[in-house]
Amino acid sequence: MFALGAREMRAEVNADDEIGKIAQTFNHLAQTFNHLTADAVEAESLLSENTRQQENRVKENYLISQIAGSRVRTERDLETVFEQAVQGAKVMLNADRVVIYRFYSDWSGYISTEAVAPGLPIALADKIEDACISADLIEAYRQGRIVATNDVFNAGFHPDHLQLMTRLKIKANLVTPILKEDQLYGLLIAHHCKGAHSWNSSEINFLRDLAVQVGLSLERVTFLAQKNAEIKRAQQLYEISSRIRTTLSNDEIYNTTVRSVRETLKTDRAIVYLFDERWKGTIVSEAIEHRYPSALGATIADPCFAENYVEKYKQGRVQATEDIYNAGLTECHLAQLEPFKVRASLVAPILANNTLHGLLITHQCSRTRLWEESEITFFKEVAAQMGLALDLAAVLSQLDRSSQQAEQLAEEQLQQREALQRQLVGLLGQVEGAASGNLTVRADVTVGEIGTVADFFNAIIESLRQIVVQVKRSATQVNTALGANEVTIQQLAAEALQQSEDITQTLSSVDQMAVSIQAVAESAHQAAAVTHTASATAEASQVAIDVTVHSIFALRETMSETAHKMKRLGESSQAISKVISLINQIALKTNMLALNAGIEAARAGENGLGFAVVAEEVGELAAQSASATQEIEQLVDDIQRETRHVLEAMEQSTVQMVEGTRLVEDAKENLGQLRQLSQQTDQLVQSISEATISQSQISRSVGLLMQQLAQRSQQTADASHQVTDSLHETVGIAQSLQKSMSTFKVEMPS
User: Tens digit of pLDDT for each residue in 244-289?
Assistant: First the structure.
């Protein structure tokens, strides 16, 4: 029966014999077999579950990898990714509904994408204003919070939220956040509508990872959109810059800029607002949507602008206003904007000619507008390029005016040169005679530069005429004077030559005297060296004697102290003698006591033998003490005798040292006198040496002066001869000058 499947069958055990043991063994094996079978079934179940989980995990990873690898570039591609995500999640989680819930700016939201089982309510495009989504909950979702609700009716939800759950037949839900650039974009939500559901960790992790991948796809699309927008903005900026730089007209620059800004940013109005010297502004250019009122020509005076905003705009401030009614503007400012239907604005400074030229402004009139960073940057760059274009236009305009002025000036200068040439030809005709030596001609003085030249020429000719007259007169006087002084100059040359010879002889004598003085100077220098050496030796000897005197005094003190110690040694020796005498007396008494003890021991007989031995030893010690005392006494006598001899010798040495000290003092005094005499001699010899050196220098100076005097005398003689020769030449030159001056006509006609 067990083999046919009756696994609970057991053998009946009736005895302990072999049959009974076999039955027990069979029962044990049957029980073990049942346990093994149960374990195998459980293992197979676990293996099947693990296999299923692994398959699900592979499918989940495949879905996530498909979304990650999708070529998402546009919003349309995003819709495909959203649809793929909710459909795949619905299958993977075996859920009844999976949706993507997207937020508006006010944190209300709507279902943008849905995958739902047939027969259930459709939530797609439903706008949901859930009062349960508070600011704290939104921040929690932004931080990555995941909400898994197994039974929505036992989760303590708000009645309004439960009403929403009931309408959509939701029994359990799993909510994960979708983040884009760390901001909450929406929610990825899974619903079970047939009954409550216990969400496990693998389901929660899968939906979380799927939401993260959806967020990455969003960021990729946003990144590509931003890059495309930046590229497009850069191209548009380049086109705008190129257009506004090709014109020299400020008005054309304004008009081109506002049209381009409005077209690029898709705004309702773009204007150029220029300032006057009091910071009042006028709108000088406008591009506008025809539905809205025009602001062209409007003048706006803001009394607070100069004080609060001018410096900020000069520093490059760009003001982006999303909603003018929530920007903290004053009532006065709002009153200026309301007639033009402004809801949002973007304002950038136009900086030209190193000042705040005006403002470039664009308006959104149809709605409020959150300006993107790329739009603000583009707008700022357009305003900057506009300022550069205005600067360039001003420079080119200035260059054009300068060119016209230069052409006009060149024409005027050409006419002036032609007139001057005609006048100059006339002037040359009038003064042509001056070239042949006629200094009586004069030019006609007229008005203008040529008249000034003619007047100046007349003055020069008159001055030249007077000079020629004076030169003629001077040449005649020179000829007369040279003839009279020629003999005197020759005598002067002869005397100068004789003076040169005399000075040469004197110079020879001065040289001999200089040699003698030099010899005396050398001898004096040697004597000075010897006396200086003697003086130095005397000073060194005196120092040595001083050291000797100090040493003798120190030795005297040492000997005195030694004598004192020797006397104390003698006194100590006498004390030792007294002690020795005392020891002798003690030894005698001890010896007497030993004799007495020996006598008493003899009387005692055998009983006094020990005492007799002691008495005998005491006697021997007394004898030894007496002997040692005699030796010590002899040594003390020797010490006292030697001490007396030493004292006598030291006294004699002290007497001799005193005498030596006196002799050294006398030698010191004599050596001091010798040093003073050596110093005086050294000073005298030094003075003689300096005097001889000075005389030697003076003699050399005299020799040099005599040499110079001889050279000057020789030069004077040579110069006298040259003067004589020059006078002869001068006579010839003066005669030639007279001949040349005769060619000039200097007599004015009467």
Answer: 666 667 888 888 888 888 988 899 999 999 988 888 889 999 999 9
Closest CA to 283 of 368, 343, 352, 363: 363
217 & 297 share domain: no
User: With the C-alpha atoms ordered 563, 568, 573, 574, is the resulting torsion angle positive or negative?
Assistant: positive
Q: Amino acid identity, residue 710?
A: A
190/289 same-domain check? no
Determine the 3-state secondary structure of 187 from DSSP.
strand
Tally the domains of the chain: 3
E strand or H helix at 678, and its extent? helix 609-741
Q: Per the domain annotation, does 320 fall within a domain?
A: yes
Q: Within a domain: residue 632?
A: yes
526-532 long-range Cβ contacts below 8 angstroms, 24+ apart: 527/685, 527/688, 527/689, 528/682, 528/685, 528/686, 528/688, 528/689, 530/685, 531/678, 531/681, 531/682, 531/685, 531/686, 532/682, 532/686
Q: What's the pLDDT score for residue 666?
A: 72
The pLDDT, as a whole number, for residue 507 is 64
Burial of 256 (0-12, 13-18, 19+ CB in 10 A): buried
Alpha carbons 264 and 681: distance in angstroms, whole number = 115
Q: Is 750 a domain residue?
A: no
Closest CA to 130 of 154, 101, 151, 153: 101
Contacts of residue 301, Cβ cutoff 8 Å, sequence gap at least 6? 280, 281
Q: Are 272 and 283 in contact (CB under 8 A)?
A: yes
Is pTM beyond 0.85? Reply is no
Average pLDDT over residues 400-414: 81
Residue 107's region, left for phi above 0, alpha for psi from -120 to 50, else beta, is left
Return d(Cα 468, Cα 705) in angstroms, integer.
Answer: 47
Report yes or no on 660 lying in a domain: yes
Residue 443 dihedral angles phi and psi, to the nearest 5°: -90, 150
**492 half-sphere exposure, CB direction, 13 A CA radius:** 14
On whether the CB atoms of residues 324 and 342 are closer than 8 A, the answer is yes
Residue 422 to residue 427: CA distance in whole angstroms: 9
List, in order, residues 6 or more apart from 146 with CB less than 8 Å away: 174, 175, 176, 177, 204, 207, 208
458 residue type, one letter = N
Backbone angles phi, psi at 347, to 5 degrees: -125, 130
Q: Measured between alpha carbons, how far is 326 from 649 in angstroms, rounded to an integer?
A: 129
Distance CA 471, CA 478 (A): 10
Amino acid at 454: A
CA distance 379 to 290: 22
Q: Dihedral sign, CA of 743, 745, 747, 749?
A: positive
For residue 394, what are the domain limits? 247-400
Return the DSSP state at 324: G
Q: What is the pLDDT of residues 660-689, one digit of tens each?
A: 677 767 766 766 776 676 677 667 667 766
The answer on pLDDT for 130 being more than 70 is no
Instruction: Tell me, yes or no, whether 203 and 286 share the same domain.
Output: no
Can you give the CATH number for the domain in which 353 is found?
3.30.450.40
Residue 199's pLDDT band, with cuts at 50, 70 and 90, is very high
